[in-house]
Write the structure tokens for this entry.
Amino acid sequence: PSPRLRRGLLLLELLSLAVAAALTCRYFAMPDAARIVAAMAVGYAVPRAVLSRSRHCSTGSLVLLYVVGAGLMAFAVYNMWSWTVHAGRPLDAPHILSDGGKYYKCALHYYDGSVPPQRNVHYYGLPAMIYLTWKLLGVSLVWPMAVNYMLTLLSMVVFGFMACRLLAGRLESGGRQVMLLAMLLMALSTYMLSQGALLQKEALNYMGMAMVGYVLSGLARSETLHGAKLWRETLVFFLGAGMLISTRGTMAYFVAA
């Protein structure tokens, strides 16, 4: 993208963040609103930075990431409002009716023992992620929601990288077009993306699948791995495999195959 287009998009992103901050302050207490806006801004900035540094980046892919990111941010903040302010609860004790509630309580049990153990939790990847964010930042619904938001957007970018790697040299279209189309296909899976922006294990699952697929696409292209690249690919593969297995046990068969 040209510098002018980059500056224009950056200005649009900053204006959108300002509007989001104003709306959030209207429905949440000021300290809570500040945490939400800061966390979600970082959650968007990370995949945005990864994409913009890629040689496959284009104006279209940046705009698509912005559109999806804005929509998922609004959806995530609405659900945080529904589980806390609307239910008369604080951000550290939300009233979550979906499966996310049991994962939240499971993490809380291991964090301070204030709730009994949750017997119907079979996959501990999400509770572990929630527990780690609380160890770093304190107990709040905001941090794991922001991490899930970030992972969902980041998985869309990494799926694009996987497509570019797998289809390199096989299509007349360049890497930028392939990247845009791969991201667009994932963006059209609106229900799937919406699950990633909730307090569910899906975001970790998407990211793990993208990481494992990225490495396997390189092996399918018979890329030579040595030195630092070998260690990087190995680390990416095992991190992705760990995310998959910790959120869906049957994925162990996929990884092993």
User: Anything to note?
Assistant: The chain is about 75% helix and 0% strand.
